[in-house]
Model the fold of this input.
Amino acid sequence: MPFTAQPIQRVLLSSVAVATIAVASAFGGRAVSPVPAIDLTGTWKYAVVTENGTGTPTVIMKQTGDSLSGTYESGRMGVLPFKGSVKDSSFTFVINTQGGAALTFKGSLVSANVVKGDVDFGGAGSATFSGERQAAK
Done:
């Protein structure tokens, strides 16, 4: 009997159909939607908790793809620009102070309008932070 592609095609199509049914069954027949990409763009009110008290800077973020930029404004340090990056639900940005220290913020999006994380004060200490996105005015 000569070799034909027809039986092989039937086997492949049957395998694909079985795999599709198995995946659909695993998710209860529901459609699986992709995880939405995060967008940190907006004005955030942060609470930076240190051993010396809590600061409440305003952080304005602009996210373009996986790049992050913006300003950090506090009564103590004034307005300082920053640059950073975003990966999955996590982000990092670095603020270079006028005194030469680099403050590194590493956090994650807890919900659509809440972030939490840690700050490294250039090896001279650390803190935690949380932030809430402010409603657009």
Q: What stands out?
A: The radius of gyration is 24 Å. The chain is about 15% helix and 50% strand.
